Amino acid sequence: MSSRDIKRKINSIGKTQQITKAMKMVAAAKLRKIQHTALQFRPYMEKFEEIIQYLSEYTPPYENKFLFIRDVKSVDIIVVASDKGLCGGFNHNIIKETENLVKSISSKNKSVSITVIGKKVYDYFHFKGLETKHFYTGMLKNEARFIDAKKIMSVAIKDFLDEKTDEVYIIYNKFVNMLVQRPTVKKVLPISFESEDDREQKYEKFTFEPSKEAVLDEILLKYVYMSLYDSFLESLAGEYAARMLAMEAATKNAQDMIKKLTLFYNKARQAAITKELIEITTSIEAMK
């Protein structure tokens, strides 16, 4: 490779490095905003779950279709991923978790329907020939919106209430920290939680108006909507964190390549200068 080719390649990698730097800065700015929202929403969601479990466990005989556990013949899976790539293993981890869940459910002779939020995962499933029930794109472009979560979950709720599906799961990446986004599987329908002995004492002094049953009727539907909205927040924060780290690694790799190519360029240039000096010296000696 000539010195001119090396110089051209260094310039090309330098331009790529500028792009990856800019993408890292954009991802970092978006992450700060969505991370704040996601972390603030967690305590609210946890308290919501506590109250629902208390009301469902310590309310007199109460009937609500969201709490009915029936024989499972059909399962609906909602997969929350991203529309864009360049975010490391973010989408790959979701795909792997989804395939494992589908395989586990199918092995028990149960039918599976998949709703995909995010173009990258949809493209993979389409390539593999895995049929998807619904596909949404642009939902997590810049922000997570409750109205979008409500729109998507309303379809799954209707199928559950009409007994077309018996269970509904959400698969998403939970934002743990800047380095970790954990693939998570959450069952949202029928609603069920693990028991805690101290929950009855915690809420026994509370007064629920007009009644526990009426409050539970009101908040169960909202909880299902908020479960998907919560996965939107966690997934979006995880996506920006993963993209920021990926672009940081790409920027560092570009810098390393520029250093190596610059060394090759300097060696090639030094060799060319040495060759010219030898030719000049030889010509002078020949003229003598």
From TrEMBL:
Q: Cellular component GO terms, alphabetically?
A: plasma membrane; proton-transporting ATP synthase complex
Membrane-related topology note? Peripheral membrane protein
Question: Which InterPro entries does the UniProt record give?
Answer: ATP_synth_F1_ATPase_gsu (IPR035968), ATP_synth_F1_gsu (IPR000131)
Compartment(s) of residence: Cell membrane; Membrane
Per its UniProt record, what Pfam families does this chain match?
Answer: ATP-synt
Q: Which UniProt keywords apply?
A: ATP synthesis, Cell membrane, CF(1), Hydrogen ion transport, Hydrolase, Ion transport, Membrane, Transport
- Extract one GO molecular function annotation from the record: hydrolase activity
Q: What CDD domains does this protein map onto?
A: F1-ATPase_gamma
Q: Which GO terms describe its biological process?
A: proton motive force-driven plasma membrane ATP synthesis
- Name the NCBIfam families for this protein: ATPsyn_F1gamma (TIGR01146)
* Functional note: Produces ATP from ADP in the presence of a proton gradient across the membrane. The gamma chain is believed to be important in regulating ATPase activity and the flow of protons through the CF(0) complex.
> What assembly does the database describe for this protein?
F-type ATPases have 2 components, CF(1) - the catalytic core - and CF(0) - the membrane proton channel. CF(1) has five subunits: alpha(3), beta(3), gamma(1), delta(1), epsilon(1). CF(0) has three main subunits: a, b and c.
As for family, the record states: Belongs to the ATPase gamma chain family.
> Any idea what this protein is called?
ATP synthase gamma chain
Task: Please spell out the taxonomic lineage of the organism that makes this protein.
Answer: Bacteria, Pseudomonadati, Campylobacterota, Desulfurellia, Desulfurellales
